[in-house]
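BUG: 3D viewer hangs when loading the predicted structure for this chain

Environment: internal workstation, default settings.
Expected: structure renders.
Actual: progress bar stalls at 90%.

Input used:
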Amino acid sequence: MARAFRKAQSERRTIVWVDESAFYPLPAVVRTYAPRGETPILDALLTHDHLSVISGLTQDGRLLLQIRERAFRGPAVVDFLRHLLRQIPGPLLVVWDGATIHRAQPVKDFLTQGAAARLQLEQLPGYAPELNPDEGIWHYLKQVELRNLCCADLAELRGELDLAVKRLRHKRHVLRGCITECGYIDLAVPRMPPVQAPSVDRGHPNRRLAA
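Structure tokens produced before the viewer hung:
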């Protein structure tokens, strides 16, 4: 990994850590305040419905994110890689785990069809989530921004998640903290010239994305 990062810096590539996670209408229960003697109670419907989310965190603290109501597969991963290339100028180094969808044929085809000119993919060591700063993003969204939140359905959850992501994007110290927490101290500084804030990638008209 160290060699890949040194090479990326010498080539002035923007490093982007990518990962996927699921968000449920059920609350992430954490400790909270309540009147003495009154135990807080959260009323939530039991459901397996969830939102699938993919995000990319750059070394200078930019957060790009897409949301779907279906599981991510190869073509959807390619769609997100296209989103990264549209929103971030110059060459990119995408760092992610060895999930099957990251090695799917659509991803390989995307590289051979020309994306490899700007895009380089680097796989994290196996069973090492502590090396991916995106894990910190998921933890902060679920345990801080959306803590103890009960949603009636996926539409309400999407709205709350959208607002949570907007708040998090204004907390650059938290985003960079996720990077330094993984040991990438030398990388958690702005290395690219400032660019316009990422727009929402609407993609398919029926797809809802976090702003």
